[in-house]
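Q: Predict the assembly, please.
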Amino acid sequence: MAVSLREYRARIKSTESMKKITRAMELIAASRIIKAQQRAQAAAPYARELTRAVSAVATYSNVDHPLTKEETDPKRAAVLVVTSDRGLAGAYSASVLKEAERLAERLRSEGKEIDLYVTGRKAEAYYRFRGRPVVQAWTGFSDQPSYEVAAEIGRTLIASFVKEQGEEGDVDEVHVVYTRFRSMLTQEPTAVRLLPLEVVEAEEGGSSEAPQKTELLPLYEFEPSPERVLDALLPQYVQSRIFFALLQAAASELAARQKAMKSATDNADELIKKYTRVANQARQAGITQEISEIVGGVNALADAQAEA
Amino acid sequence: MADSLTVELVAADRVVWSGAATMVIARTVEGDIGVLRGHAPVLSVLTEAVVEITSEDGSVVFAVADGGFLSVAGDRVSILSEHAELSAEVDVDAARAALEEARSGSLPTGDETQRRIRMAEARLRVVERDTSR
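A: Predicted assembly structure:
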């Protein structure tokens, strides 16, 4: 009995220290979410203005640009999967990857081959384990992405998109799978098609950054020419969309981690309570046994004396 | 604010400066452009250069933009630039080092190097121009 009591005590202790860790992670995640949300908000004006500008050009000039051109017979599609670098965030990475699989399935059924581009170590490990080639991976920034990274990803994707069909590394479509941050409680994995751009579409990035529909766009003059403006505008637009996806994913990751760590802490509490009960029971049982042994001993002694 | 411009200078990850202003001067790929109240709507491509915003109280805000766009519509001016910086935020030493490096020819020649030279020069110029600094 005494042995198992010691065991229970050890278990309680280790659960307690685990609880401390998960509690700390929960608090860290909670404080970082606020920062992540602020970053997302700070990036919103740029995205909003860019969207306005793009729709202005699209409205007043005939949009004919390599980035908006639909390939008549799309053969390859690039999929950018945005996941986290670290785990301990519940089903966060798993649900993004599941969404990516779904999208890949759909694209394959449309007869397209898939080029994978990933961010975050989780996705990298996932595809490496399954032996699927990843064209390029970016890692090490998942909870605070910088614009530079987004710009680099954007450049890479645009470069493979504008290649002619049949060229090495050419893709005809670019999709992004990321987790959208709806609220602290809901984050949903989302797949959007990034390229070819549909400029007139309602902005995917949430209502906050879309210009009001009723707003009439003024009749702009374009300097030096609509084409040149578009040339410069569209890549930036793509990069800003990717940046937006990364920021959303970062906020989602932190929210998922906070939630996961919160339930881990709660579970630890449960366990400690349970173990404490069992340990008390074991202690009681030990005491009871000792008493009955003593009583038994005393009785035996008394019997022996009475007989003598 | 009928008698002034509403100006927003935004970088990719933040709003660098925003407020009411009387005049904005920026450099497009075709040359300098000055915007006063009542300017026709225009959307133009900027080059790496200094942006000058005369704010409503008369003080001048100097900033540097690394390309991007200027859009003017209905007395609203937005300057979009991936890495816009106010002159107070410019790291002079880093800009000087970048300029040296770009000019030394150790980098591959091409548009990117040219761009870096222009950017570093613009950074240094903005600091020179801004007398308050």
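The mean pLDDT of chain B is 84. Residues 5-86 of chain B form a domain with the ATP Synthase; domain 1 fold (CATH 2.60.15.10).
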